[in-house]
Amino acid sequence: MTAPARQRPSAAEFLPLARTCQPQYLKDLAELVAIDSGSYSPDGVNQVADWVQGRLTRTGFSVERIRLPGAHGQRSGDVLVARKRGRLTVAEGGRRILLAAHMDTVFEDGTAAERPFSMTGALAHGPGVSDDKGGLLAGLTALDILTSTGCDAYAELVFLATPDEEIGSPASRRVTEQTARDAHYGLGLECARENGDLVIARKGIAGLRLTVTGRAAHAGIEPERGANAALAAAHLVIALQALNGRWDGVTINVGVVRAGTRGNIVCPRAELDVEVRAATADDIRRVEEAIQEVAARPGVPGTTVLVEQTELCPPMEDTLAARRMFAAARAAGEVLGLHFGAASTGGVGDANLIAGTGVPVLDGLGPVGGADHTPEEWLDTATVPERVALLASLITSLGDERGA
After folding, report:
1. Is the pTM value of this prediction over 0.70?
2. Cα torsion at 144, 149, 150, 155 (round to 10°)?
3. Nearest-CA neighbor of 125 among 137, 136, 112?
4. What region holds the Peptidase M20 dimerisation domain (predicted)?
5. SS3 breakdown of the chain: % helix, strand, coil, rounded to 5?
6. How many Å separate Cα 131 from the centre of its chain?
7. Which tens digit of pLDDT belongs to each residue from 123-169?
8. Vertex 148, ends 369 and 64: CA angle to 5°?
């Protein structure tokens, strides 16, 4: 039997509730910012996870904490995956909505004491206040409002909080991708752009290592018997950097060059670490093919080049499905007096991993913030009520597609 339809609250109806939550939001934000939770500080990350788990449990979510082995010899904090079933089935038009935030920051232990949470007018400051504690808390606040108003016209809400997004999610990536595969929509809780825009696309990254093999020789007695891998690497750097501009929105950067051990030996080996950023998977593939072509023609006789992919983070592409999500967000925003655009960015995040599973994603749904990763990081707390109301409205809109 199909569940009876109820009147869906408008974004304007959520706004007074979000304003009522503002004092508690500021209190909670100060508490979260006071916790050092750098990516390499698992105890601090888990302290944030404890806090988030308590909050979600009180909101009726079942919470799973997944201990991770860590990566590169580093211990990691836990991943938190929380779920709450709605009153609709998927067959009835209910949808699974995944909300994603991260608990780690880029800052070292002790930063919270050195730069404690502070307010200058409506601007909040402190490590991680925008990236991503302000967005994470906005998501929790929106879920509180949905619970308090009995809005449950969805199949399931899933809240994902990761411990290592700031270092590329090496430990949590598998959990994020597994969690995303059953979702119909993904909502990223990174903060909005400084001008208020949401994020509809993020570039993907391919990391490549080019290993140049030459031939050693005595540099003073018989250099002609050598094949200089360092010289071949220099030719490669020039050729690879020259690929920039061939494709719109694609960047190629030779970031690291390693070559040789002694000045009196013709260099027999060199390595180049290259980063490619592109807006589409097709562009990443095209660039990798072009790099293979360059590598096949080393500029020094007697040298060879091996190309290996060391990293791949899929792009969050600007798709038709994402545009439909953005249209729903913009419609709710208009009711709230918010006017924003759809931004594309070169920065990557967990939204990329979600999009890589084929799930449409809209990101930047936290409050407005900026200067991330710097001592000047800020969050405009005056934007919190409208952004929380927007998020709550978007969840209700996407969660129920009966008759859509």
Report:
1. yes
2. -60
3. 112
4. 200-300
5. 35, 25, 35
6. 10
7. 999 999 999 999 999 999 999 999 999 999 999 999 999 999 999 99
8. 70
* Structure-token pair, residue 244: 């920039």
Is residue 3 packed enough to be buried (19+ CB in 10 Å), middle (13-18) or exposed (0-12)?
middle
Q: Which residues contact 10 (CB under 8 A, 6 or more apart)?
A: 335, 393
Task: Tell me the domains of the chain and their CATH numbers.
Answer: 11-202+315-399 (3.40.630.10), 204-313 (3.30.70.360)
Tokens representing 332? 């709710």
**For 314-348, what is each residue's pLDDT tens digit?**
999 999 999 999 999 999 999 999 999 999 999 89
Region of residue 230 (left: phi > 0; alpha: psi -120 to 50; beta: else): alpha
> For tokens 């890589």, what's the residue?
356
* 8 A C-beta contact, residue 125 and residue 115: yes
Q: At what angle do helices 320-336 and 384-399 cross, to 10 degrees?
A: 130
| Residue 204, both tokens | 């993907």
